[in-house]
Model the fold of this input.
Amino acid sequence: MSTEPLSLLAPDGTFTAHAGPAGPAGPFGPAELRALHRDMVMTRRIDTEAIALQRQGELGLWPSLLGQEAAQVGAGRAATPRDVVFPTYREHGVAWCRDVDPVSLLGLFRGTTLGGWDPASNNFQLYTLVIGAQTLHAVGYAMGIVRDGDVGTGDPGRDRAVLVFLGDGSLSEGETNEAFVWAAAQSLPIVFFCQNNQWAISSPYSVQSRVPVAQRAQGFGFPGVRVDGNDVLACLSATRDALDSARAGNGPTLIEAFTYCRNPHTTSDDDGRYRSGSENDAWAARDPIERLRRHLVSSGAADAAHFAKLEAQERALGERLRTGCRALPDPPPDSSFRNTYVDLPAELAGQLSEHTEFVAAGQEDAR
Amino acid sequence: MSTEPLSLLAPDGTFTAHAGPAGPAGPFGPAELRALHRDMVMTRRIDTEAIALQRQGELGLWPSLLGQEAAQVGAGRAATPRDVVFPTYREHGVAWCRDVDPVSLLGLFRGTTLGGWDPASNNFQLYTLVIGAQTLHAVGYAMGIVRDGDVGTGDPGRDRAVLVFLGDGSLSEGETNEAFVWAAAQSLPIVFFCQNNQWAISSPYSVQSRVPVAQRAQGFGFPGVRVDGNDVLACLSATRDALDSARAGNGPTLIEAFTYCRNPHTTSDDDGRYRSGSENDAWAARDPIERLRRHLVSSGAADAAHFAKLEAQERALGERLRTGCRALPDPPPDSSFRNTYVDLPAELAGQLSEHTEFVAAGQEDAR
Amino acid sequence: MSPTAMAHALNAGLRRAMEDDDRVVLIGEDIGRLGGVFRVTDGLQKDFGDLRVVDSPLGEAGIVGSAIGLAMAGYRPVCEIQFDGFVFPAMNQIVTQLAKYRHRAEGRASLPVVVRIPVGGGIGAIEHHSESPEAYFAHTAGLKVVCPSSPQDAYDLVRQAVRSDDPVVFLEPKRSYWRKGELDLDAVPAPVERARVLRAGDDVTVVTYGALVPVALEVARICAEEGRSAEVIDLRCLSPIDDATILDSVRRTGRLVVAHEASRTAGLGAEIAARVQDRAFYSLEAPVQRVTGYDTPYPPSRLEEDWLPGVDRVLDAVDRTFEH
Amino acid sequence: MSPTAMAHALNAGLRRAMEDDDRVVLIGEDIGRLGGVFRVTDGLQKDFGDLRVVDSPLGEAGIVGSAIGLAMAGYRPVCEIQFDGFVFPAMNQIVTQLAKYRHRAEGRASLPVVVRIPVGGGIGAIEHHSESPEAYFAHTAGLKVVCPSSPQDAYDLVRQAVRSDDPVVFLEPKRSYWRKGELDLDAVPAPVERARVLRAGDDVTVVTYGALVPVALEVARICAEEGRSAEVIDLRCLSPIDDATILDSVRRTGRLVVAHEASRTAGLGAEIAARVQDRAFYSLEAPVQRVTGYDTPYPPSRLEEDWLPGVDRVLDAVDRTFEH
Ligand SMILES: Cc1ncc(C[n+]2csc(CCOP(=O)(O)OP(=O)(O)O)c2C)c(N)n1
Ligand SMILES: Cc1ncc(C[n+]2csc(CCOP(=O)(O)OP(=O)(O)O)c2C)c(N)n1
Ligand SMILES: [Mg+2]
Ligand SMILES: [Mg+2]
Done:
């Protein structure tokens, strides 16, 4: 396995075509390039606004993706609407690509919900906080696709695949590895997209492994691919190829997008304790958005007017997030009771009356 | 990785030297060859007697190792007394090599104990029934060896390693894979010895994976080696090399001993439901003991007198097992209470008196 | 109606569930050609194919985790855990995912997953093959936990479990697998959540479930000989607990014995005692007695007979309730 | 003696344990350079090196499983599970291996492993970061379960836990990490298994542990204003439970309220109620009342304040015991 990551777009914005398994990647049309750039810009704006909201006390916590926009937008845009996506808790950029209302991403971190959107309506599952757990759900969903007969038919309106996100740290969880076992043995239509941002909170990747993430797949007998995670075009191409292969019935792929999260693990984390600012600077120089912007400019795909319009859209999004966040309703006090089971069991109904009386008495007192 | 297993001794008993990583394996002296043959013969006798005891109702269950003697004796003899061995529930041949009293292997299956021997006294841990669980204990033990400074010193009286056994089925458990993660990342002195007997109860290996067991190690970044599991010399050489490497501080190895268990999973299993007798016949023709016996005879390393003496030893062992099994004492009725904690907690002491009174009353009634 | 073993009744129930709904998929170790180590799924792979009866890799997290994914994809998976002691590798998927998903999804989505587990001791088995893990599940909000004691109930409950949109942990008492009972394939099943009064009585109530139900009935028979009338309640659904049925009984009898094989501390007996002392405080003529496995790991099988609650121990407990 | 936060007391206790015995090894995610997400191990890797303070791979089964192996090799490992909700991947190692090993080994060998887990809610956290899993462990024979409520106790108990030859699940109430209290580094510690009467009283007993201890004390203060004298017992050791101390109290007061954050069904409150109604049947003037988290998954943090037992709910329960 080559450990040199696939790269199409250099940090300075120059493009080099590359023959992937599914033929040469690119050229990408100017509209597509602009759209990808816009996705990344908007994703970053979601992130920036959320961090600000956290600082203002509107959110309890926010896991920033700063620097991972290319990986998320590349992978997110590679999936078709019929593909099913399983995120971790950091896939705000993928959520954007799946048309999930960005305001609804905030509820989990504001404490108004543990979910926030309908997992069925955008084929974008709920965030999963337990590291690795979602990889097995993704496997099960892929088993469902096989049972639906929606794989390897050659009909693009029918074939589907699962795209599941995971972090470098999650490679050490037993469940993630079980997911690899199942996917490989049953040759399931699934793509494991690992954003190797090189850190699991304070643990550098060397705590987990001495070999690249992508190599893990070989041990299970399916292909592992390494891409420059700050290169949206490489991420898009590799994920498209892998999803095509999965939909065609050729089984799973593990993609390692080699990247870096320039913010601490979450807003609660203090990364000054465990890593140096210079590492951060080096990765800032490889910024995924700046890279594509340069390409857009140098290739003439976008002009100043375009960027000005984009900035206005960004600002509007920021405004929407700020207003939307504050307007997120508190969940009704009975919601946990009502959502535990389909029908409220008698004992729990009793506990709910206890609770309702108690809450009412509290409101009474407060008045 | 070559998937052709390392083989030194052909089924017909011809020997071919082979250069392993630690130099050429063999030649093996006649005394060593006789000893290995004797170990396998005695191991098989333990197995045969235990099966008979189970049929007579003396044991509740017995997991036979028929056909896996070479793998177990080869690996078992590769370990030095200072190395620490972690078995599954089928390593009767390894137990033999570790000088564990064979009678004590029976208690677990007779229901007189859940253990049966002192794990410390022979550096042979207790049988573990939960698939994969022991691999992590082995990892922890290897971490202990590192902390003791007993690795890579070059002093053969000091350096030690861990040898942990596992089955092909266990490769699918998350915990086994976590063990690989830890062993690789910390470059621990540990050898994973997997007897790929091609079945996990009724599941052929294809249910677990489409690539050889040994290949799994590559995904984690350490070497995987495939050996003919019915060739005691190949198993011995490969395990010695791997243990040497581990003791020298070069980290873990996964050995796949490709073999076959010619008896059902346990005496409770009915393998007629899921596999064919012809498969069994093919593997009987590759019998590990017969193979070495042929070599002993053709090379002149053993004569008829030797085999006659061995048969007498075998018979004596059988006798000892039969008598010993029936003589295994029932555990004292208070043993579970006393062995749960170092000091009996008050509540449990109360439960123990309840129990003691109850048992005494029962004995009263019986009288 | 014909006498049928519980294992066969379960097989019939699963078969019927698979016929009724082609989105029912079974997943587990050795459930295909072998038919499961207890033969509960015997013949189902042959008849429904290996896409619907899946011989899984050896990993319990994978079994439950993939079942969750299948449920998300619209299927109704039924997992088999081979033995009680081997459910713990799946605990993360069960507790943090399966049980919580509907709540996380704000009621928008449910996970109709059944996790079948053979449970309990008394079969002379080796370690990890005789455990009673029900309290872990009953303490986990979001799960239903059921445990049949008869072939008819096994058949009915397994079909209802498959139809349930809530996740169900389905405990099958191993000791009862080969006990026979009448089975009517078309009987109208009792509601899952209802405990059942198996024998009416006035002097003392005995509550239990699973393999101890026959023990409780034998106790009631002996009590009757001694002139005491014991009411026997089969809990059936261990979570949520039908305390109404228990309270009805205890309000009449004033005495309660709860029996289970699981260890005592923080077991279901504790919960039932806690509720009854609260809700029937003035009816109780004696403290609720628990007859349970002890607070030790399950012992070697040579000791299990005395370790497990049996007729004599339950009788002793009944006696204790009359000492007050 | 100086006012110290519980997190710092734990740090001091671990440091002292490591100084006292060089076979003490800490293992966990982010416990090294970061000092743990709650900084409990702050500075320890710097001072004791990375062989004794191990930043582990991200796998809880690996953390506990490797700790078991280290213990077999003669070490005394102290694991950190990063949050309560993430202990479940380690459940197999804890329940089937750690808890049962001494029993399996017929008392020949023990596993002196400590599993530290920050627990409980009320800190505005996201899902899985506010759980109270103690009942799972208390129901598992072979484990000791302890939970300090003050810096002094945290310091004493963690040192005792490390010295214990039995495996200890050590629960650290997150809400109390930054509460300060007096800390005497050389005080003679109370025995681990003993509950502690924190405030004497005659009319009603309130039993709790961890983060609810200050709540119970506040309840007692308010009761006093209302002319009721409440005795407050801090359980400290959740398994084995020191019911002697509770029974002593209830035999005097006749009334008992048990409070915990964990869900009600089959929680520790059930166990305590079950024991007390049995062993102090004639002393009870009212049924034992439980004030607990409800039988739902832990709610979104906006709802946690009302979901968690607080002063008002405990006071209500006290009132209920006087209605009888
Ligand atoms: C099972 C489990 N253990 C521990 C945690 C605590 N935790 C949250 S994020 C994290 C690190 C994850 O690292 P990685 O997988 O690389 O993802 P990243 O955060 O870098 O995106 C940890 C340890 C968790 N969420 N789940
Ligand atoms: C965690 C766990 N799950 C299931 C089982 C039941 N079980 C016992 S042996 C076995 C098959 C093991 O196969 P393998 O690892 O190949 O070892 P072999 O028996 O072939 O030696 C299974 C599924 C178990 N013991 N532990
Ligand atoms: Mg990471
Ligand atoms: Mg096998």
Remarks:
- The interface with chain A takes residues 29-30, 32-35, 37, 55-59, 61-62, 85-86, 88-89, 124-128, 264-265, 294-297, 299-304, 306-307, 312-313, 316 of chain D (CB under 8 Å).
